[in-house]
Hints:
Blueprint (H helix, E strand, L loop, with lengths): L2 E3 L14 H4 L5 H14 L6 E5 L8 H5 L3 E6 L2 H14 L4 E4 L11 E6 L10 H14 E12 L1 H5 L5 E6 L2 E10 L4 E11 L3 E2 L6 E2 L3 E11 L3 H10 L3 E7 L12 E7 L4
Parallel strand pairs: 1-12, 2-3, 2-5, 3-4, 5-6
Antiparallel strand pairs: 6-14, 7-8, 8-9, 9-12, 10-11, 13-14
Helix pairs in contact: 5-7
Amino acid sequence: MDTKTGPASTTPYVRFAEIYDRVMRPVGYEMWADYIEELVGLYGRQARRILDLACGTGNTSLPFARRGYEVVGVDQSPAMLAVARAKASDAGLPVAFVQADMRSFAVEAPVDLAVCLFDSINYLLEPADVARAAACVRRALVPDGLFIFDANTRYRLSNIDDEILVFDEDDYCLVWRNSYDVSREVWRAELTGFLRSRPRHDPVSGSYADGGFVRFRETHEERAYGPDDLKWACQQGGLEVLGMFTAFGFEPAASDSSRIYVVAKRPPE
């Protein structure tokens, strides 16, 4: 295999963005949107304008847009947003995608509902950063507007096996290594990928030669949080926590919940 080494950076969601949707194909994004709508209804709210924080390639934004909501997606990764914009354009959906850090973003007009899904909150490795994100969400919400987000718990992340996963298709191969640092309470995924590059054009012969594969490496880290940590961060950010549920139901979050959903609101002025 003709292999070229890509950039040395291990920043997450750069080259991985090119194959992210294929690796995450089994995820039930429409079901997630159903659940969010149920949670909104549980608290007697209605939403018209939605903020999708850490929207990635738009998989959590587009289901809402297809249902008629006005959606603004925010993400820090230009590569992920490029994919999201292309998908929205292909689907004819007018989603506004904005590149920004979830700890320091702003939106042009207030939203009725903010969501942050697929354990994106866990990528913030300090509780103070979660609080900063909550403060930004508070400023983005209308009074009494809701913020619904999920998080992997200590129980979940500490019980992920230290293992190696391999995703292998004709035009890419991805090696995914899991580990957990007990002292830091941080789960790490070290990705090594090989992406088939575009065929090279020979201007003399006019033919195209196999471009071979380009290698990339990325490191993804998630901090384990419990309900008390998340409640503290919301309160520090000026939000009131209304409920915490074991995904994807309505049972209160428990010590052995793998993933929890937090429902908070911006208090009325």
